[in-house]
Amino acid sequence: MNRLSLFILLLFLYSCQEDKSPKISISLSEELASEVSDGRLLLLFHGSDNTEPRFAVSDDVNSAQVIGMDFENYQKGNSFEFDISSFGYPIENFKDIPSGEYWVQAYIVKYETFNRADGHTIKMPMDQWEGRQWNRTPGNVFSKPKKVNWDGKSDFSIEIDQINPPVEEPEDTEYIKHIKFRSDLLSEFWGRDIYLGAHILIPREFEENTNEYYPLMIFHGHFTPNFGGFRTTPPDEDMEEEYSPRFGIYGYNKIQQEEAYNFYQKWISPDFPKFIAIEIQHANPFYDDSYAVNSENIGPYGDAITYELIPHIEKEFRGIGEGWARFTYGGSTGGWEALAVQVKYPDEYNGCFAACPDPIDFRAYTTVNIYEDDNAYFINGPFRTTERVGRRNYLGHVSAMLKDMNYKELALGGEKSRSGDQWDIWQAVFSPVGTDGYPKPIWNKYSGEIDKEVADHWKENFDLRYIMERDWDTLGEKLEGKIHIYCGDMDNYYLNNAVYLTEDFLEKTENPYYDGEVLYGDRAEHCWNGDPDQPNYITRLRYHTMYLDRIANRLKKTAPSDFNQRTWVLNR
Question: Are 427 and 442 in contact (CB under 8 A)?
Fold first, then answer.
């Protein structure tokens, strides 16, 4: 062999070595393997052992690395050869992951098969009453974090031998009761038993005064394991005050306990109005709640909550059981839901209090106008392109781009809206069903190109401002005096932009004028809920008492004459 041939051979061998992908073998312990069939296998990298990698995936710059691949028909006894070339986040290509020492973890999100009433068969994660949290779902399996010296070439193996335990459901107390209710509507849609739940806060002397009937306060929001912000004992004396990164203060854990105890003291005081407050549990295969409306992909949750669950609660706990005595409120997801159910079921509710609502006008779907923009991720000019922002703080400092927030979901859940995260649930709720049975994307999850036909479907069915404006001739008299919206003008996710556009419409309404209120918090971030005198880290703990004066005024205007305004009791 001459020198040139030898040189070419060595160069070839060197290039092969450079292009070598690591072989990553992932096995399952024998006792766990029999329960795995279909799902998504995640490989996670984290630079610290302070937090397991599965709990460290986020939108911010300190996120753990995740790479995901779907699988079907796993056979017990086999190992997974992980496809390291699969899409990753925050780093898309594994070859760009810097060499170094990482804590690595394998995690399986299990899928189940649903034969839906619409004729589609799909595979999705199933909520196990934990609120559709992929990294905590009972029955999902994973490995212990393993230290790996990563160079992008060396092989390694991982054994999955851990399983998430079942959820411990809360027990009833004197004031807080719990129900789990099988929905006929949802069970028919999903082809299996589907349950709704609720935490119910009952008023003082409920058992003694069996002739009393009460208004219903419906708090919409994310899945909660128990009724939040209610505590019958004083704050723990020996509590170590913790730092809250979100609010930049120490002792927020103690503040939460103090506020919860203060609420309890108000609740039982003789001059406090009596009513029933509920927090609904409506997790589903796509997210930790349903957005409380009827959806082609998620099912008739709006009807199930309004016509099945709420009447059941009113019957069991002596609710008045009429639309004039029901009020909805909540923040963020719950803010959107509070407004949405008021708009879509105008006769069934007598007022909504929507704080920092998710986008209520899709001309400002956070920072995207889905009707006019061609791309969700990029703003294109003749000579340059810039990325669209996704999250900021009250000073306007940007901490995440919209593309990256979607790429996180793409790595976690793939292309079928299965991440269990924010953009995927919006898509699942608002979109029509695609030909494959999964939600039809509003935009290409990788490129950001917007589908205008899907945007039109969103507009006609879920753009709350557009629906009110389109139907005001018939809706207006049913919504008069019922709409209250609150938002910080520096909302972290730019949700105030949709509120501005909605307010523009509401202020122009005639025959009738909407006669509600829209308020903004100066430099207030996400979840400002209407109190200009208290910091938001306090007011967010007072949802159940914040709107009582406005609700009382509404009842004075609309309640029948035999309704006792002092105790909010209908004397039947």
Answer: yes
Q: pLDDT per residue over 274-294, tens digit each?
A: 999 999 999 999 999 999 999
> Phi first, then psi: what are they for 502, rounded to 5°?
-70, -40
Q: Are 414 and 440 in contact (CB under 8 A)?
A: no
Report pLDDT for 572.
46
- What angle in degrees, to the nearest 10, is found between the helix axes of 422-430 and 452-462? 80
Q: Sign of the C-alpha dihedral, residues 418, 424, 429, 430?
A: negative
CA-to-CA distance for 569 and 572, rounded, in angstroms? Answer: 9
Positive or negative torsion for Cα 557, 563, 569, 570: negative
Distance (Å, whole) CA 214 – CA 267: 14
Query: Lowest-pLDDT range, 3-12, 115-124, 266-275?
Result: 3-12
**What pTM value is reported for the model?**
0.94
What is the architecture of the domain spanning 176-361+463-570?
Answer: 3-Layer(aba) Sandwich (3.40)
Listed by start position, the domains of the chain span 17-163, 176-361+463-570, 364-458
- Give the dihedral of Cα atoms 135, 137, 140, 141; nearest 10 deg: 50
Instruction: Identify the weakest region by mean pLDDT among 318-327, 333-342, 394-403, 557-566.
Output: 557-566
Cα separation, 311 vs 517, whole angstroms: 29
Residue type, 394: Y
Q: How far apart are the first and last CA of the chain?
A: 105
Per-residue tokens: 264 = 């309890």
Return d(Cα 192, Cα 124) in angstroms, integer: 13
Peptide bond into 285 cis (omega under 30): no
Q: Which helix (H) or strand (E) holds 333?
A: helix 333-344
Q: Give the SS3 label for residue 513.
A: coil
pLDDT in tens, 490-506: 999 999 999 999 999 99
Phi-psi region of 4 (alpha: psi -120 to 50; beta: other; left: phi over 0): alpha
Tokens of 377: 């991720």
